[in-house]
Amino acid sequence: MQGPTHLMASWYLAEALDVTTPRDRRIVAWAGFAPDFDVVAYLAALVWYGFDKDRAFENVWAVVHHRYTHGLFFVAIVGAASYALATGARANKARVAGLAAAAAALHCFLDVVGGGSTWPIYPFWPVSEASWGVPWSWTIGEWPNVAALVLCLTGMLLYARAAGRSPLECFGDRADRWLVTVVRQGAVQSSGSARARWAIWAAVLVATVAILAPLGFNPFR
Amino acid sequence: LRSVLLGCVAAGIFLALGWPALVSNDPASAAFELVAKATAAAFFVSLAALLAMKARRGGR
Q: B44 and A132: CB-CB below 8 Å?
């Protein structure tokens, strides 16, 4: 599934299971995204190969993606890091670390189901090179993945309005407060907030297209 | 509903990291396809339902 879907789904998971502080919700959300940090290798390869996308893809991304970060070993690292970053008493730190590890492991599951058949995960690396993938796995631009992304983005706006916080919290409290303020000012009907709301909806639409277009998504095909 | 969500999380983790070692590493397994798709769907539906209920309470 797309990175933003993993990030938002993990934040929603933390919120649904009553993780109380923004910092702890951020930890769980970014832990759910963490297996995709291997994209850094692709970016480095792009620079290394002088922005030759084909060589960077073939020599690095095709080899690296899912191999080192989509398995039990990385999930354990994420859990340990989350324990160190979480706040409060030991019991709370352990709960946050457990949820963070679960979010990272769930990322692996969602990539088996919706990562595409050419991208298996490696559950037991470095102990074993055995891969795990299925031929029916939805490619990144197929409708179930697109539906999950659109639902997460739409849910972000609706939940921000109703509950006063949103997955935008992952990028800081100010960003979240800004979104909540804008979506909650519907009753005031000031022209400024109306413009901002339309700008947000347009940004969501553009972001969705920007994420999906390079992945080959074409609803009319 | 909370138990359903936690069950889906546990099932998803098992399907990704336990199934190939403990049950079958056959990628064409029809049983895996059925259980995995049902688990993914149930996860998103239960998550949405829990959050909808929480949103109705104003996020509390």
A: no
CB-based contact B47 A12, cutoff 8 Å: yes
Give the list of residues 6+ apart from residue A90 with CB closer than 8 angstroms, or none: none
Residue pair A1/A111 in contact by the 8 Å Cβ criterion: yes
Q: What is the pLDDT of residues A70-107, one digit of tens each?
A: 999 999 999 999 999 998 899 999 999 999 999 999 99
| Nearest by Cα to A138 from A36, A217, A60, A39 | A217
Cβ atoms A27, A100 nearer than 8 A? yes
pLDDT tens string A36-59: 998 888 888 888 888 888 888 888
Contact across the interface for B16 and A136, Cβ inside 8 Å = no
Task: Give the three-state DSSP class for A132.
Answer: strand
Size of the A and B interface in Cβ pairs below 8 Å: 95
Cβ–Cβ gap A15/B54 under 8 Å: yes
Asked if A69 and A63 touch (Cβ cutoff 8 Å), the reply is: no
Q: What angle do CA B45, B51, B57 make, to 5 degrees?
A: 145
Could you give the maximum distance between any two Cα atoms of chain B, in Å? 46
A50 CA: distance to closest CA in chain B (Å): 36
Contact A124, B31 (CB under 8 A): no
Which pTM was predicted? 0.85
